[in-house]
Amino acid sequence: MFSKACEYGIKASIFIALNSYRNVRVSLKAIAKEINSPEAFTAKILQDLVRHHVISSTKGAYGGFEIEKELISSVKLSHIVNAIDGDSIYSGCGLGLHTCDESHPCPVHHKFKSIREELKSMLENTNLEELALNIKSGASFLKM
């Protein structure tokens, strides 16, 4: 459903949020290792997240990636998905066809439409704080 880059972006954002709660900036190397992603690919993903104001970066000896604690609850999954994959997940065809709409639906168009609407709602109503706190409490896990 999400691109590999988007999956890594979500995992990276959660990992950064968890560390930001402890006032710890995390390095590219630490993030790539944690989410099991190549460093160069992770760097590109993090650049997109910084450019879209999902995370912030600081250069230098004490640099790294972080999210201001006060902002973690306002970062929705939809922000991460839009930063990396755009909004095509909300309008694309369930079968990947180029021409699929209400007047020329694919075989799964009407069923996929409701799934897409539920997905949009979930992404817009789920924030990083909720995900990070679930991991911190042991209710969910991020390790691969």
From TrEMBL:
Name of the featured protein: Rrf2 family transcriptional regulator
Q: Which lineage?
A: Bacteria, Pseudomonadati, Bacteroidota, Flavobacteriia, Flavobacteriales
